[in-house]
Amino acid sequence: MNDTKIQKEIISVLEDKIQLIKREAGAIYLVGPIRLPVNLDGETVTFKWYCWLNCDEVTEDYERIIEKLSSENLAEYQQSSVLVYGDFEHGENALIRMHSICHTGDIFGSKRCDCGFQLKQSMKMIKEYGTGALFYLANHEGRGIGLFSKAMAYVLQENGYDTVDANVNLGFVDDSRNYSDAIHVLKALRTKPVTLITNNPKKLQALENAGMLVSGRTPLWGDISEFNEKYLQTKINRSGHLEQEGMPLHD
Ligand SMILES: [Zn+2]
């Protein structure tokens, strides 16, 4: 397209799929649903995918927002998204997972943590349950310290520090994750209560404090190995995660 002015037709196609969610300051622009067939263990499962963008400008003139996209260098700032399954808006019960991005675990399949397992497993659980959503939170790497700092923290961990001490020694609080955007999006997609997939009651509490209606919690443990045993034990000992009966972890 030569003209910088975006064609009317493009705008009208996109407008139907954009939702403005106002916040205390600024707004979230939610785009979707987009049909997303996914390979889950060889089976094709179709999710509805939404992605969102935070913006200081609050406008329902989406043309203004669309015009700005190409100059905003968005690839430098990863956006979050959500995979929705079933009748999420109306279904009586829904299972949700607030999944923090983990470059090493989700993408490379690193066994230093259990994130890759949790990601795939929660997608399967949501599909089996029939209704639910998986929020993939892009600004939560390393519990909110970012990928580069996480590499530093791993170096410290290889030198005897546990995952909490490593973060603290780099000047971070142990867990700086914020769920406010995700909850705004959740509320735009569903107003009924949800069951949260998590081992962490603090996360449940944080989400309730932020206004999420929670009807229950479903634990998610698995893929425990010699490589992540210490990490998982630290989550239980220091970060308040609830151990499941029969878990093969040592003290
Ligand atoms: Zn991880």
TrEMBL record:
GO cellular component: cytosol
CC cofactor: Zn(2+)
Taxonomic superkingdom: Bacteria
Source species: Peribacillus glennii
SUPFAM superfamilies assigned: RibA-like
Protein name stated in the entry: GTP cyclohydrolase II
Entries under InterPro entries matching the protein: GTP_cyclohydro_II (IPR032677), RibA (IPR000926), RibA-like_sf (IPR036144)
GO MF term list: GTP binding; GTP cyclohydrolase II activity; metal ion binding
Reaction equations catalysed: GTP + 4 H2O = 2,5-diamino-6-hydroxy-4-(5-phosphoribosylamino)-pyrimidine + formate + 2 phosphate + 3 H(+)
Gene Ontology biological-process entries: riboflavin biosynthetic process
Name of the top EC class for this enzyme: hydrolase
GTP cyclohydrolase II domain boundaries: 76-219
A Pfam family this chain is assigned to: GTP_cyclohydro2
Presence of the UniProt keyword Metal-binding in the record: yes
Keywords: GTP-binding, Hydrolase, Metal-binding, Nucleotide-binding, Riboflavin biosynthesis, Zinc
Pathway: Cofactor biosynthesis; riboflavin biosynthesis; 5-amino-6-(D-ribitylamino)uracil from GTP: step 1/4
Enzyme Commission number(s): 3.5.4.25
